[in-house]
Amino acid sequence: MENLDVLVLRTLRDWRVAGQRALLATVVRTWGSSPRPVGSIMALAEDGSVVGSVSGGCIEDDLIYRHTQAYAGKDGPHRIPSGPPTLVKYGITADEAHRFGLPCGGTLELLLEYDPDPQPLEQLVALLETGRLTRRTVRLADGAVTLEPADTPSELVVDDQRMVNTFGPEYRMLLIGAGQLTEYLATMALFSGFAVTVCDPREEYRGAFHVPGAKLVNDMPDDVVTAFKPDRRSCVVALTHDPKLDDLALLEALDTEAFYVGAIGSRRNNEARRERMIEHFGQTEASLARLRGPIGIYIGSKTPPEIAVSVMAEILAVKNGVTLPRDMDVGAAKDQLAVRANDPGELVCATRPG
């Protein structure tokens, strides 16, 4: 699955280029609990087609009812108005919050842009498709749009005169190794909006790998990392257990801005990897501080799909800036289990892990 923002903007562009009336809705403020974060977007065409989301569905239904031909013949205008953007709030009262499916006390405010100019949309989509982080500014007086490059992602800003929203290229994931675990992790990453590349020079593994939507390459992993050019919206995960494939790729990844670099393996194997890198590749504890391992959060996972859930959860937490509790760290959790297993006073039966 591609990045949702790009999908929304591309679809809206196609509607407008074809001459179809449409609106773009953006979540600009929230109060209390909200089903979608600030910056979320959806597009609505005059025939009732919708892509993207600003709520759990009820607000989308209301917008369809008010602004499209899907309810033609019933009371109300049922058409997309013309003119400058407008701000609209949902969930101001408890009754409205219940009606629109918002959490208790939740309120959100949308900016509705009517018939966005297709030319800036074409430019924005083209920039995003080439991996450019782009700042989009909408003048509230008349809906005029300006685009400019951005160096870093930033939060949406709205005031009485303008709305500024930064759109980035899709998140990317590079997986080293094409085994069974990779198939599950690649699948989860794709439906989480990542573009996935899988690297494995071993023909016997590539031949069995099949995940629609994932790109499969056969060059040596360190060369692939270099060509991949990981940035702040990229993660690199080594899954082969083979130092000849994993180690050099990880070292290349650590020299980039990738937001997540990690490797599968037990605590013992990960400790051995660090010792190799320090002894043979001139690394230090400081230079390896960003290397994650054992990767994942502790959920007692044992099977490949469960391990993939664990790893994907940690990647998403890091991506979203969430600090996980210490007891969810795989290494810390297994250390604690080992202590309990070797303590006669603990009524815990556990096998000392990896």
From TrEMBL:
Show the InterPro entries listed in the entry: MoCofactor_Util/Proc, XdhC_CoxI, XdhC_Rossmann_dom
Where does the XdhC Rossmann domain lie? 173-315
Checking Pfam families in the record gives:
XdhC_C, XdhC_CoxI
Stretches assigned to the XdhC- CoxI domain = 15-72
Protein name per Swiss-Prot or TrEMBL:
XdhC family protein
